[in-house]
């Protein structure tokens, strides 16, 4: 077992430095953006309220409004910081999602926080909307309180919890995203979401008002005022959440440089991040590794090739941590498919037979002149491990596109899309905690354990497959079989798919660049081990990508939104292709497993056609 290299000082560990960077980003959010926007918003509200009192009252109310709005923003930011996570919560179907989120301590906390924020915001803006005169009627007063204390915070809390908006999502093609760019790209989506929430509330409020006060209506003008108030409150709550996401998902660069460069021993520091148990730190470290591996700047990779500070364990540890992440997903997918096959033994959808001939064993497999077809051409995936069978029309449901030499590099760094892995389990402890994340009190920890006990009891009753048994093979319950969702199951099996993707990109980028930059180094000699792991990913992830839980629905990879495991499968194929093509001549002198040889031969045959 290799020893993980340790920096000269513990204060230069990746988590410590990343914590300081996150604190800086948090301070920019809390002191610059929030204070500035709150000030201008309070000023506008104060100008709209000039006709409702004297100049002295106006001057005294301005700082009060400012403090109320700023406190509401600060409460949301602190709560988001406490429940921040980057992994999917792992609910395999809608039933488990609802049960898991309803019996959640975070939902109760958010309900309380959003209720307090709604109260603060309503006090700050009530006069500017003419809501101060609504207390003339008892029904109107009750409706106003119903909006502020129950309807607005409940609606926003439900959508926040059910869609797991605490999770930070990342794009494996983006290593740095300025907050301004993130917020600007979210304006349209935020506006549409606020409108949907406001309209939904407008339909919910009349029957709720009738049940609570026996009045169906409080007058058209009063309803309009409450709708405007709810729109303004939703806008404030949503903007704070979007601004928090923008500042916490900036990426692995700080002032244009990798985070590990803030240490006196960058590579040793980076390795501590790759092996970190905190998922946010681990993900950011692999983002940086991917950035170094695919950068056009050779100086970012030279420390990986050349052993500095007499430390020879840098590359072996990087390789080990990367392969562990990939293999963890492979094992989880294989275990689930075996469980599914045991439960649904009458189905043959998961059983594949390969009869394709890969050529004679004595034939030279490598060293031939492979010609790559034009970018965008696709290969027929017949008889390929993990590929889907052809349908009656002869078309293939899962196709692989061979790209050019820069297959996994962003074509235009300025045109970055939204995160690839979208969708929406916190463990016993937070995935990313001290010193950034605040601590929970003893009371909250007790409540959290009670809620987890209730969820565990319900899961063991409705979903027996979650309880391991040594006497028999794992089985799925009828509810689980009936409510299977391929996308949610993929998120459960690969809770952090971006980290897996960054591992693949890092290994591919380093191997391809090292053959020219350090041809006699340890990176090049690891090509066999990397190809072996990628071949196993192709087999394991490919089976899941071809699995169709709904037999009445034909697989159509071009039209349907792919799940995260299918994306990882395509990424594994692309990386395998690029490495084999780059190492075509050298592979004759490398020991490879039989499966890797067969897959490599198939790749070269496809490229030469």
Automatic annotation (TrEMBL):
Coiled-coil portions: none
Biological classification of the source: Eukaryota, Fungi, Dikarya, Ascomycota, Saccharomycotina
Cellular compartments per GO CC: nuclear membrane; nuclear pore transmembrane ring; spindle pole body
Membrane topology label: Multi-pass membrane protein
Subcellular location(s) per record: Nucleus membrane; Nucleus, Nuclear pore complex
Keywords: Membrane, mRNA transport, Nuclear pore complex, Nucleus, Protein transport, Translocation, Transmembrane, Transmembrane helix, Transport
Name this polypeptide is given: ZYBA0S05-02696g1_1
Single Gene Ontology MF annotation: spindle pole body-nuclear membrane anchor activity
TM stretches of this protein: 33-53, 59-78, 99-126, 146-165, 186-204, 224-244
The keyword Protein transport belongs to this UniProt entry's keyword annotation: yes
Biological processes, Gene Ontology terms: mRNA transport; nuclear pore organization; protein transport; spindle pole body localization
Homology family: Belongs to the NDC1 family.
Species this chain originates from: Zygosaccharomyces bailii (strain CLIB 213 / ATCC 58445 / CBS 680 / BCRC 21525 / NBRC 1098 / NCYC 1416 / NRRL Y-2227)
Keyword Transport in record: yes
Pfam family, one: Ndc1_Nup
